[in-house]
Write a structure and sequence with these properties.
Layout: H1 3-18, E1 20-27, E2 30-37, E3 39-41, E4 46-52, H2 58-63, E5 66-73, E6 78-89, H3 92-98, H4 101-106, E7 116-130, H5 135-148, E8 156-161
Antiparallel strand pairs: 1-2, 1-5, 3-4, 4-7, 5-6, 6-7, 7-8
């Protein structure tokens, strides 16, 4: 497996494991971030989100569909950032296909609730950072670097096209 393929697999693995991200979109000149729970579909190269029709306005996404998702697992010291484009999808069959217990909590009327809209995020690039999850290991790495006059080895990083 190539380094790029391994990095892509690792990014998707982390996205699945972490699940919740900060979604950054643009409202005019302002960047806006909000927490969202994603439904990764690696075979589609897409991450889906349930949203309320009034939350993400068509003009906002139409004017600037560029978005960034950031996933963080601070306990595991794992971070992922993916950039791409986001679009609003209002197809009931897609809503029904993706429906889950989490969506049911937000929309108790079910998948036919007229307020339910899907957001489809199509990632273009992804980057990950994996560091030691133990504070003791991190402290040892810093001490080792200080003693050897080198930079601390704080894990791996990769950036790939998705």
């Amino acid at each position: 497996m190539s380094d790029a393929a391994a990095s892509r697999d690792l990014i998707w693995k982390h996205i699945r494991a972490i699940g919740t991200c900060m979604m950054v979109t643009h409202d005019g000149a302002q960047a806006r971030a909000r927490p969202m729970r994603g439904i990764p579909r690696e075979d589609e190269n897409a991450i889906w989100f349930f949203s309320d029709i009034e939350t993400h306005s068509d003009p906002e996404l139409r004017d600037n569909p560029r978005a960034c998702l950031t996933f963080s697992d601070v306990r595991g010291n794992t971070f992922v950032s993916v950039t791409g484009r986001i679009s609003r999808i209002q197809k009931r069959d897609a809503v029904r296909d993706l429906w889950n217990d989490g969506a049911d909590s937000y929309f108790p009327q079910g998948p036919d609730d007229p307020r339910v809209v899907l957001l489809r995020f199509d990632p273009e690039t992804g980057e990950y950072w994996d560091g030691p999850s133990s504070p003791i290991v991190t402290a040892i790495k810093f001490l080792e670097a200080k003693l050897t006059g080198t930079r601390p080895d704080l894990g791996s990083n990769g950036k790939v096209l998705l």
